């Protein structure tokens, strides 16, 4: 045990009337919701990077956090692992997620870096013997080191491609050995800054080949978890090849990977792509590539991905509606890809952020369930499209009519359709009744 969270007791569910700031007021992991435990709907995970590796800097100032593991190499990484599992246990968290570079410092070679990662992974394995926290997903950081300034798999230098492959091999193997439910490819720099020095087609082919290699390797080592891509637009690269769900699906289709790879969708990235979170979820579900999600929010006055803890029940209710209608997240979950504000320097702030986020998700889940069980919203949408169930409409949709036949019927029957209200204001008011 460390003394980082000294004098803080494990976080418990105390109900809505509790005034204890270090207690869950809405998140009761064992509450049954639609025949399933609340925890099993949400599958919350703690992000190793933001919680333990982020230093509190911003573009105009450096470190504000004072953590006992900073700047201490492998010894610091071991302290960090101790503190991480203490936080997992305090929050009673079922899952965590990590990048390789977050859990262990990079060495002077790929071999040394891999050895460092494996050393900490062995510590994780021992801790998981006495902790209930499991691994939701692992990934490799292929964006922070300067070698990746022009991308990883999309780099013009084939040696960078090869180095990235070696890094993923270790990260995936460790994820597999720790029982990870998913493996994520987060393409922070898989894009370009200017067309003046870029071959888009070649870089896309490189990225497609890299992802194919990952899928093949997962099968070779017996990894049964999902392979996920995290859509990410224009940050920090100006033009990202994995801009949003639609772009990712087009990429997967081109390289024949749509049956092998799904999406890990983040709230902040959806906003940066000028979409809503529920849009990305609904689209991914309709395309069969909804895998997992990152729970956070952006500052709507900022054009940057600020990674704040979720605090909007209406926003998350619409997200849960889409997830529930899609049948849930399966082996995915809600990863808290959220970091403290740089002025929130106390250890307890880590607890407050996750407690608040989990309470928001719990309230949103129950609101979405109430919306579905009421049925009014679904009926309004069904009624809007009801005419497509008619035999002639189905014939058009199923390819049983030519364009000329359709046009002839309009003329023969003198069809002159009139607009119908979309009832947006009514639906907005209806949703607000549940949140």
UniProtKB/TrEMBL annotation:
Keyword Amino-acid biosynthesis found: no
Reaction catalysis annotation: alpha-D-xylose = alpha-D-xylulofuranose
Enzyme class: isomerase
Alphabetical list of SUPFAM superfamilies matching this protein: Xylose isomerase-like (SSF51658)
Family: Belongs to the xylose isomerase family.
InterPro entries the UniProt entry points to: Xyl_isomerase-like_sf, Xylose_isom_bac, Xylose_isomerase
Keyword field: Carbohydrate metabolism, Cytoplasm, Isomerase, Magnesium, Metal-binding, Xylose metabolism
Main localisation: cytoplasm
Cofactor remark from the record: Binds 2 magnesium ions per subunit.
EC number(s) recorded for this UniProt protein: 5.3.1.5
Subunit structure: Homotetramer.
GO-annotated molecular function: xylose isomerase activity
Location within or outside the cell: Cytoplasm
Positions of Mg(2+) 2 binding: 266, 269, 305, 307
Keyword Secreted on entry: no
Residues binding Mg(2+) 1: 230, 266, 294, 337
Active site, per annotation: 99, 102
Cofactors, names only: Mg(2+)
Protein name: Xylose isomerase
């Amino acid at each position: 045990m460390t003394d980082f969270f000294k004098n803080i007791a494990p976080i418990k569910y105390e109900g809505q009337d509790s005034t204890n700031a270090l207690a869950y007021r809405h998140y009761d992991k064992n509450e049954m919701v639609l025949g399933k435990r609340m925890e099993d709907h949400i599958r919350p995970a703690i992000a190793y990077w933001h919680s333990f590796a982020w230093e509190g800097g911003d573009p105009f100032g450096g470190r504000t956090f004072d953590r006992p593991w900073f700047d201490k190499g492998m010894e610091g990484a071991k302290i960090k692992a101790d503190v991480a599992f203490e936080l997992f246990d305090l929050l009673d968290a079922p899952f965590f997620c990590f990048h390789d570079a977050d859990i262990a410092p990079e060495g002077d070679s790929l071999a040394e870096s891999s050895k460092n990662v494996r050393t900490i992974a062995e510590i994780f394995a021992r801790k998981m013997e006495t902790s209930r926290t499991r691994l939701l997903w692992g990934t490799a950081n292929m964006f922070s080191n300067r070698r990746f300034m022009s991308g990883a798999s999309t780099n013009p230098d084939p040696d960078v491609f090869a180095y990235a492959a070696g890094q993923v091999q270790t990260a995936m193997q460790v994820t597999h050995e720790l029982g990870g439910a998913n493996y994520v490819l987060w393409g922070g720099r898989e894009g370009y800054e200017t067309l003046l020095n870029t071959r888009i087609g070649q870089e896309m082919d490189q990225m497609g080949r890299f992802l194919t290699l990952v899928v093949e390797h997962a099968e070779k080592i017996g990894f049964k978890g999902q392979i996920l891509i995290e859509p990410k637009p224009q940050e920090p690269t100006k033009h990202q090849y994995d801009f949003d769900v639609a772009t990712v699906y087009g990429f997967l289709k081109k390289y024949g990977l749509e049956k092998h790879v799904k999406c890990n969708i983040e709230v902040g990235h959806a906003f940066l792509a000028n979409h809503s979170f529920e849009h990305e979820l609904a689209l991914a579900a309709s395309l069969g590539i909804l895998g997992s999600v990152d729970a956070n929010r952006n500052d709507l006055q900022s054009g940057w991905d600020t990674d704040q803890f979720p605090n909007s029940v209406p926003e998350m209710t619409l997200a849960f509606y889409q997830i529930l209608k899609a049948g849930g997240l399966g082996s995915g979950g809600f990863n808290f890809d959220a970091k403290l504000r740089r002025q929130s320097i106390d250890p307890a702030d880590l607890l407050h952020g996750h407690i608040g986020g989990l309470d928001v998700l719990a309230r949103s889940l129950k609101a979405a369930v109430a919306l579905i069980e009421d049925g009014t919203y679904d009926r309004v949408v069904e009624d809007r499209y009801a005419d497509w169930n008619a035999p002639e409409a189905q014939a058009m949709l199923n390819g049983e009519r030519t364009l000329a036949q359709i046009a002839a019927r309009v003329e023969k029957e003198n069809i002159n359709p009139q607009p119908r209200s979309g009832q947006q204001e009514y639906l907005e008011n209806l949703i607000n009744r549940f949140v």
